[in-house]
Amino acid sequence: MQETHDFLVPDYFKHFSCKMGACRAACCQGWPISITMKNYFTLLGIECSAELRGRLDRSMHLVDRPTEDEYAQFSMRYDGECALRLPDGRCSLHAELGPENLSDVCDLYPRGIRTIPGYECSCAASCEAVLELLIRQKEPMTFTHESHTLRMPRKEKRLAKFETLGREADIRLWFIRIMQDRSRSLPYRLAKLGDSVYRMDEALQAKDAAKVESLLEHGVDGNLMMDTGAVDAEHLLHGLGIVEKMIDCLDGRSDSIRDLGETALAYFGTGRDALENYGIAKEHFESAFPDWEIFFEHMMVNHMFFSQFPYQDRPEKLMEEFVALCAVYVLLRFLSVGCMTEKTEESDLIDICAALFRLVEHTEFDRIASRLLHGLGCNQPADLWELISL
Fold first, then answer.
1. What are phi and psi for residue 252, nearest 5 degrees?
2. Is residue 356 a contact partner of residue 335, using CB atoms and an 8 Å limit?
């Protein structure tokens, strides 16, 4: 059901439009598309051409344990494409009957609507059209309230409870502003963000409203928990070893990054060769994309807003969410550097980042990543600095 609300949205939101058949990697490719009970019975009796009727009847099937929100799915073809996709890349349902007859999932994606603590909407970075907007944007992302009419998901419920003293929106935007401080490198910003999350969590758990207000107004003073000095070759080598183990573990969980991870690891090799090869690849990447840090800033900020960092709906401590955010940055950096060694096209970089965000933003990646880094003995400030300094 479409509703009109005043949403808090990022500045690029009004410029987003679906690329339809022009996508290099369609959002329906390789993913089972869920159908609500309402969608299913609507499509079962909808008037359409004989060709579309055949596609619908052959592709829709009930899931093993139907619920009102996930009642059925569209079957994938042998090549991983949605059975409703036309040869020119468009959706046959959309092409013939219009967007109002799409399933809720297809109509909303890549938009993510939130109703707690207030109405918000942004877009997942797993969509290449979103990343194409972000890579061309040079100014820091801003957020404004705008009226939009969108098909609303079912009423949102939060399973996890957080102490925010009524300042959740202010706190989240404060964390985002730290990531947008271009007077510092991105690794330093992450280190400062870690301190800020820690201090804010302390103040919130103590229900110290004055301390919360002071942090929002003045920020964090003093030395950071992470030693943000230069990292020597031994520490970088150790950091590369940790990333290699991360990739090995995640490869088995994600088709979207398996090939990318194997490509990067094969190029870098092991031991001292890995350190040398990483240096060569890093120099090539930063030369080919001199504004890479701005693009990465936009992706990190967009992910923080899209996922409501650090108040994801999970019973995790705020610092665990920070550890997971570090993992997102590290994988972005490692895969981009390692898979762009002979490439200079924006589209290639965008495809790598979109593939990673398929894993990050559409699975329980945050929980997996923080526990993975714990298991690898890499969750303390010094260890994290070795990773994010790569």
1. -75, -10
2. yes
Which of 181, 231, 225 is closest to 322 using CA atoms? 225
For 174, the 3-state DSSP assignment is: helix
| Beta carbons of 8 and 144 less than 8 angstroms apart | yes
Under a CB-based contact definition with an 8 Å cutoff, are residues 294 and 141 in contact?
no
How remote is the C-alpha of 202 from its chain's centroid? 27
Name the burial class of residue 167, with classes exposed (0-12), middle (13-18) and buried (19+) by CB atoms within 10 angstroms of its CB: middle
DSSP H/E element including 8? strand 2-10
Q: Which residues of 85-103 are buried (b: 16+ CB within 10 A; e: fewer)?
A: beeeebbbbbebbeeebbb
* pLDDT tens, per residue, the chain with 390 residues: 789 999 999 999 999 998 888 889 888 877 778 899 999 999 999 999 999 999 999 999 999 999 998 999 998 888 878 889 888 888 999 999 988 888 888 888 999 999 988 999 999 999 999 999 999 999 999 999 999 998 888 766 777 789 999 999 999 999 999 999 999 999 999 999 999 999 999 999 999 999 999 999 999 988 888 888 877 888 888 888 999 888 888 876 777 788 999 999 999 998 889 889 999 999 999 999 999 999 999 999 999 999 999 998 777 889 999 999 999 999 999 999 999 999 999 999 999 999 999 999 988 898 889 999 989 888 788 889 988 998
Whether omega for the bond prior to residue 110 falls within 30 degrees of 0, making it cis, is yes
